Amino acid sequence: MDASVKVILTDIEGTTSSISFVKDVLFPYAAEHLPQYVRDHINDDAVKPALQQTAELAAEDGENLSNDDIADNTDALIEKLLQWIAEDRKATPLKALQGLIWKTGYENGDYQAHMYPDATEYLKKWHDSGLPLYVYSSGSVKAQELFFGYSQDGNLLPLFKGHFDTLVGGKRETQSYLNILADLQKNHAGLHANNVLFLSDIKEELDAAKEAGMQTVWLVRENDIPADAEHKAVKSFAEI
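Predicted structure:
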């Protein structure tokens, strides 16, 4: 690895872990349990604000789901959230609710998060060498912590110094990576953008990170590596 790399920032889905686990296990689990979970916890401090934010986002789409008493629109809000799951929309309130629901599934032992063996191996090696590791995913920070805390390779959460989600901005927006850099610099004096290596399976995310000045590596796990790849492209963490 380039000696200039002082911090590693990694994506999850398609990078450290299979896309199929999220698509075929987590998303269906959330969709199945979301209606009852929302109804059972509608007045909880974590749920009520998420429902209000859902109404606000729906209003931006031209739908009026807001009400002084959010409970009056519960069914409509649930329907909207299920629609977003089907569309794989990266909506912050949905991600927050999914995280809460997934917590139940993890704690009940309904599933464990998938990890690519090479990802687990090298994340441990990098951590042991003193290289700070961070996560940036469209899933909420809570969902990220659950993912690594209940992985098939055990509790990997202690490997990471911090987590970022869409509250810093969209993953295909350059400003998001500048926001992350500013936060990292609070804990790592003298850190520059080119000292941060971002790992992802999505070219557009890598483009945004590169534009922010970060180094990038493209994980191409399932398909052939493009001949004209604009980023260093590898099949596993062992090649980084």
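Summary: The first strand starts at residue 7 and ends at 10.
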